């Protein structure tokens, strides 16, 4: 039991570490980045199906540049069809533009499948886009396609034509290992699924690196992130502590609803008062 609890705590810390440290600026200089989405779990409630879907991007040939972002709950719901089947809702243009603005740089060659959202331009970003259609229509499915981009000017080089092979095989291989890590996890607990996904993402980053060294770097990061918190806050579970930290940095963190931020802020105030009262009581105790 204790070992199992320790593992859950480690996964919670690791999940937060991966979310905080994953790349925010992929591509640039016409690097090739594959973007795709995958479903790791689904849960049926009445005539509605909730899908746990992640959008991911990966720079070809670089392990560390695997980025995953979970789709919002509102965009992950679909109705059961009369046939009894259901399919996850397609990626929206707003989701694609938000993801690209947060994680991609200008002058990047983006490889995707045939989803319509990827065709939408991203404000303030200059992207070259290649796509392949996985649909069975028009003679498909297609998995690779030779493409040529004209007038490409890399850093310290003259303009030339860039020949690429469109496709998402690189990130598709990542989905296989990621889903394997979620086998046996109950879909009723979405945060458990996400912890396993983040753990698989972390292992994908490290490859054959020394596991003890990488574990030490995660624990040092965690120690630095909680050293300035009051004792009563630092001992809370990771997810509660996250709400309180976000409430303390409202000017820089724009995440959940105002009601949740207010509750977290109130909790932070109460805990801080308890900490002050406890310290005052300890000082008044006679030796």
Q: What does the model show?
A:
By secondary structure, the chain is an alpha/beta fold. It has 2 domains: 22-206; 229-284, no CATH class. It is built from 8 helices and 8 strands, in the order H-E-E-E-E-H-E-E-E-E-H-H-H-H-H-H. The protein has helices spanning 2-21, 93-103, 169-180, 190-206, 211-226, 231-234, 238-248, 258-284, and strands at 32-45, 48-59, 66-70, 77-79, 108-112, 127-131, 145-153, 159-166. Strand 1 and strand 2 (48-59) form a beta hairpin. Helix 1 crosses helix 4, helix 3 crosses helix 4 and helix 7 packs across helix 8 (258-284). The longest helix has 27 residues, at 258-284. The chain starts with a helix and ends with a helix.
Provide a concise account of the structure shown.
The protein is of the alpha/beta class and 287 residues long. It is built from eight helices and eight strands.
Task: Draw up the topology in text.
Elements lengths: L1 H20 L10 E14 L2 E12 L6 E5 L6 E3 L13 H11 L4 E5 L14 E5 L13 E9 L5 E8 L2 H12 L9 H17 L4 H16 L4 H4 L3 H11 L9 H27 L3
Parallel strand pairs: 1-5, 5-6
Antiparallel strand pairs: 1-2, 2-3, 2-4, 7-8
Helix pairs in contact: 1-4, 3-4, 7-8
Descriptive terms for the model:
287 residues; 21% strand; 6-stranded mixed β-sheet; alpha/beta; 41% helix; two-stranded antiparallel sheet
- Proportion of beta-strand residues: 15-25%
Helix-residue proportion: 40-55%
Q: How many distinct beta strands?
A: 8
Overall average residue pLDDT: 79
Number of helices: 8
* Gyration radius over CA: 23 Å
H and E string: HEEEEHEEEEHHHHHH
Largest sheet: 6 strands, mixed
- What structural class do helix, strand and pairing data support? alpha/beta
Task: Kindly report how far apart the N and C termini lie.
Answer: 39 Å
């Amino acid at each position: 039991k204790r070992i199992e609890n320790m593992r859950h705590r480690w996964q919670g810390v690791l999940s937060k570490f991966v979310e905080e440290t994953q790349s925010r600026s992929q591509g640039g200089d016409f690097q090739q980045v594959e973007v795709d989405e995958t479903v790791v779990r689904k849960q049926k409630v009445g005539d509605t199906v909730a899908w746990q879907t992640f959008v991911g991007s990966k720079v070809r040939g670089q392990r560390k540049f695997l980025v995953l972002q979970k789709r919002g709950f509102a965009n992950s719901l679909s109705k059961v069809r009369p046939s009894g089947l259901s399919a996850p809702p397609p990626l929206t243009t707003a989701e694609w533009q938000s993801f690209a603005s947060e994680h991609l740089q200008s002058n990047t060659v983006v490889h995707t499948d045939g989803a319509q959202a990827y065709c939408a331009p991203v404000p303030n970003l200059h992207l070259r886009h290649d796509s392949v259609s996985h649909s069975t229509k028009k003679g498909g499915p297609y998995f690779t396609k030779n493409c040529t981009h004209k007038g490409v000017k890399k850093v310290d080089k003259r303009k030339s034509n860039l020949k690429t092979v469109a496709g998402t095989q690189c990130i598709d291989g990542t989905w296989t290992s990621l889903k394997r890590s979620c086998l046996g996890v109950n879909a009723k607990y979405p945060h458990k699924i996400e912890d396993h996904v983040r753990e698989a993402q972390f292992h994908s980053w490290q490859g054959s690196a020394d596991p003890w060294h990488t574990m030490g770097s995660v624990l040092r990061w965690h120690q630095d992130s909680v050293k300035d918190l009051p004792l009563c806050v630092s001992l809370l579970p990771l997810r509660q502590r996250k709400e309180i930290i976000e409430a303390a940095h409202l000017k820089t963190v724009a995440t959940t609803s105002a009601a949740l931020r207010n509750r977290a802020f109130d909790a932070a105030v109460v805990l801080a008062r308890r900490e002050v009262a406890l310290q005052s009581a300890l000082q008044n105790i006679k030796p």
